[in-house]
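Consortium newsletter contribution from the modelling node. Members have asked for a concrete example of what our holo predictions look like. Here is one, prepared for the nickel (II) ion complex that several groups have been discussing at recent meetings.
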Amino acid sequence: MSNRVAVYRKEHFNAAHRLNNPAWDETTNQKVFGKCNNPHFHGHNYELVIKVTGEPDAATGYVMDMKLLSDIVQENVIERFDHKNLNDDTVEFKNLNPTAENIAIVIYKILREKIEPKLDLQVRLYETERNFVDYPAI
Ligand code: NI
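And here is the predicted structure:
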């Protein structure tokens, strides 16, 4: 039996966004995205849960040093998105609708490059207490 363990780190950021598809007219955007289409933007308190899975290292007993994981998330995700307007202030969402789904995929891609390839990674993003997404979906 394998000794694989999942470890989790929770982080938090605030950001504003607007959901809009520029290929559609105003009425369609309003119908599909509702309040999230508000042209004046609105904010969310995003809760981010990073899951790293692997076997504990023989020397340290850690799957991953949580301080290191926290630093990686802070430097590469929180500093990039916290207190930002995702549509206007970030290159990632210039041409990508900043839904929870797309934000989770973007965060995964950023972190995947920073975490050892032998470790599995999953990103969970809460847009509200009741609405959250997982990427990859497994
Ligand atoms: Ni929203």
